[in-house]
Amino acid sequence: MPNQSADTLLQSFRNKVTRNIVWAGAITQLLLAGVQVWLVHYIQAAVLLAAAIVLAVIAYWYRSKRIPDVWRVIFMMLLTSICFASIRTNGAIGVYWAYPLLVASFFMFRDGFAIALASVVTIVMSAAALLYMPVSDGWRITASLLVILVLGSVFVVMLGRMQKLLHQLVVTDTLTGLQNRHRLNNVLSQLIHNFRRYHRPASLIMLDLDHFKLLNDKHGHLFGDQMLKQLAARLKATLRINDQLFRVGGEEFLVVMPETELEEAVKVAEKLRLAIANTPFDGKDAQAHLTISIGVAQLRAEQTWAEWINTADTALLEAKRKGRNQVCKAESYTPTA
Ligand SMILES: Nc1nc2c(ncn2[C@@H]2O[C@H](COP(=O)(O)OP(=O)(O)OP(=O)(O)O)[C@@H](O)[C@H]2O)c(=O)[nH]1
User: Fold this and answer.
1) What is the overall mean pLDDT for the chain?
2) Which positions, given as ranges, span the membrane (predicted)?
3) Could you name the CATH architecture of 181-329?
4) Does residue 243's CB lie within 6 angstroms of at least one atom of ligand 1?
């Protein structure tokens, strides 16, 4: 199971981009300090050297930590101010830095916030160009900055939509439309956190179709698929809104139940069992009587999510062993190791 969601990956990408920009800033300051030494401007050289050291320390400090948003905004505003000052002093030479700065804000921040910050950078840079450069140049620079702002904003919006879509595809089972096991890790970890911190109970229901192979062999795989879809819909319709249903294997499903003690979870499991066993399923060309076997486990102290799933799985095997179409509960905690 992947531990990192698409969101975390993008966040760590932004972090890396920011850190590399800080490194680039440190190296640039160092080079400029060298130029000042060559020009025999020792005070300016010392100031630039100090700035290079500060930036290098920040980049090193955050080599493994996430740079807080507020620091990234401050850093961006600092660069914008330096760029503004550079345009004021050096004219066109300072403008060259406005473009990478604008592009960087799209990489360093997300969605609307990136667009808002890029807009601020555009306004400040345009103001500098209009104030301190010939008017015709100032307008041209403003127009080109606006083009980059629009293109960058479109890029950020499309990236955000693509990210959502990809995330949806990764966590969704295409046949049933249920969540798959990729999101399970996060959901269970959260419940374990709530249990350890606030003593909130939680239970798992692990269920598996009985003799599904026989059904596939008799009616074909497509019929089996129809059954899985209908089964998922019926399970979902029977569950409460707070319970989350996952398809974790071919014909294996898992219900995650926050705020639920074992006995209450067993009642829900029994309700699910009856909902499946009592009403036949209608396929395209035939009807099928399905049954499910169920294992139920409440989260116990010090269990990891893998151990918790394992106890539910053991109870499910017990239900299969006892003859199927029944609910078994995990009475005691059995560690995996
Ligand atoms: N149609 C269909 N069948 C699937 C899918 N995923 C797994 N299966 C089938 O599910 C069957 C599972 O077989 P077994 O593990 O032997 O389990 P079973 O026949 O249900 O027997 P018990 O679990 O012991 O009651 C296999 O035939 C798989 O091919 C799927 O997405 N669609």
Assistant:
1) 90
2) 21-39, 45-62, 69-87, 116-135, 141-159
3) 2-Layer Sandwich (3.30)
4) no
Strand partners, 204: 256, 297
Query: In the chain, where are the structural domains located?
Result: 6-170, 181-329
Contacts of 231 (CB under 8 A, 6+ apart): 209, 253, 276, 281, 290, 292
Q: Which of 216, 219, 247 to mutate to test the pocket of ligand 1 (most atoms within 8 A of CB)?
A: 216
Q: What is the mean pLDDT of residues 31-51?
A: 91
Compute the distance from residue 185 Cα to the ligand 1 centre, in Å. Answer: 24
Contact between 235 and 208 (Cβ < 8 Å):
no
Q: How far is the CA of 213 from the centre of ligand 1 (A)?
A: 5
pLDDT bin (cut points 50, 70, 90) of residue 226 is very high
Cα 255 from Cα 180, distance rounded (Å): 11
Instruction: State pLDDT tens for residues 231-249.
Output: 999 999 999 999 999 999 9
What ipTM was reported for this prediction?
0.96
SS3 label, residue 293: strand
Distance 178 CA to ligand 1 centre (A): 18
